[in-house]
Amino acid sequence: MRLPLRLIVGPMVLALMATTASHAEPSTAQREACTPDVWRLCSGEIPNVTRITACLRREKARLSPDCRAVFNTSGRPRSAGL
């Protein structure tokens, strides 16, 4: 039985954001901001969270403004404002 990809990607984006965060859990807004970019730029890396993270970092210049805003210069999600 195959799961719909949306049921796989949501939890992966959660894990992705958790691996880049220092202590903060990603907000719904952060997940919503980056999920389209995962599909658009890094779909070939699904379901490997480590590779998705690396892909988003590699593609930082091509990220949507909302997803780019999630990441600060250290690569960690911003905890305030989202």
Integer average pLDDT: 73
- How many structural units, i.e. domains? 1
Given as residue ranges, the uncertain stretches (5+ residues, pLDDT < 50) are 78-82
Name the beta content range. Answer: under 5%
* Count of alpha/pi helices: 4
Shape: globular
Strand/helix succession: HHHH
- Radius of gyration, whole Å: 12 Å
By secondary-structure content and strand pairing, the structural class works out as mainly alpha
End-to-end distance: 36 Å
Helix % is: 55-70%
Largest sheet: none
How many strand units? Answer: 0
Protein name: 3',5'-cyclic-nucleotide phosphodiesterase
Keywords: Signal
Organism: Methylobacterium durans
Signal peptide: 1-24
State the main characteristics.
82 residues; mainly alpha; 4 helices; signal; 3',5'-cyclic-nucleotide phosphodiesterase
Give your account of this protein's structure:
Keywords: Signal. This protein has 82 residues and is mainly alpha-helical. The protein has one domain. It contains four helices and no strands. The protein is globular and about 35 Å long. The C terminus is likely disordered.
Give the topology, please:
Layout: H1 5-20, H2 28-42, H3 49-58, H4 65-70
Helix pairs in contact: 1-2, 1-3, 2-3
What is the compact description of this entry?
Helices cover 57% and strands 0% of the residues. The protein has 82 residues and is mostly helical.
